[in-house]
Amino acid sequence: MRLANVLESEEWRRYQVKPRATGPFEFSPVTRRPKLSWPNGAHVAVWVIPNIEVFALCDRMPEGRGNIPDVYNYSKRDYGARVGVWRIMEVLSNHGIRATVALNSNICDIYPEIVDEAAHMGWEFMGHNETNTQYLYDLEPAEERSLIHRTLQRIEQATGERPKGWLGSGLQETWHTLDFLAEAGIRYVADWVNDDQPYYMNIQGYPLVSIPYSVDLNDKPMYEKYHRTANEFETIICRHFDTLYEEGKDSGRVMAIALHPYITGTAHRIIALDNALKYIASHENVWFATGQDIVEEFVKQNHVKNTEVNRK
What we know:
312 residues; alpha/beta; five-stranded parallel beta sheet; four-stranded mixed beta sheet; 12 helices; 13% strand
């Protein structure tokens, strides 16, 4: 169906109804759910998410003063592409970890070497807008829908596989985002940082999975907002793991480690990531997995019939 017809359709009118105040999911205390089991008896499923992002020199930079060009803030982030991401790749490769990339699709054109190397390493790619200067709440619904489809199509073109997951820039959504993601065939979304286990969202009958992401084990707020040192961030990761590992003996937990190459990829911080991963890997019953791996295992144990969604 052409977009002009979509805007006049009954399906589109359903987008105008706002979800209930608590979101499109039921409240479910973690202590009152069926037991969740990970492969080989793992207590914790650990997924590592490098946020590989692009900011144009001709755009206003986050945390900047609004000047264009903002050489300082642009260069700081460009360091992540030129140097930092390669350090992170080396560390994860040494630990045998397949990452899940939250990818701005413009990276495919501006830094294609990064996409090629990540694909060569078998990393998963998750949609993450076209660029991190975009936020979905700044767009009209038709523009948002188009952006989501363009993002997924460009990543599929570059990698040969259409993303199954989505993380919005700034973890931001509109009232329409989940409908558009379901329409585009997205299987899981990482914007909702409200749980330690996956859960289902009911999007017009489509079972979209919310996967645990993190603002606690996320280098950007930890270093830039809370001014933690590398040693402190390492300790935070390890303590967080200890709690989830103990709780996961009864029912499996998910631990997300979110990284930004221009932050963790600096020479004085990369060792904190390496040390934390060494600590986690020293435990038995730990499953390093991609987002798609985790969601597939969750769906296998909590099967919900997938209602076909076709709003095109």
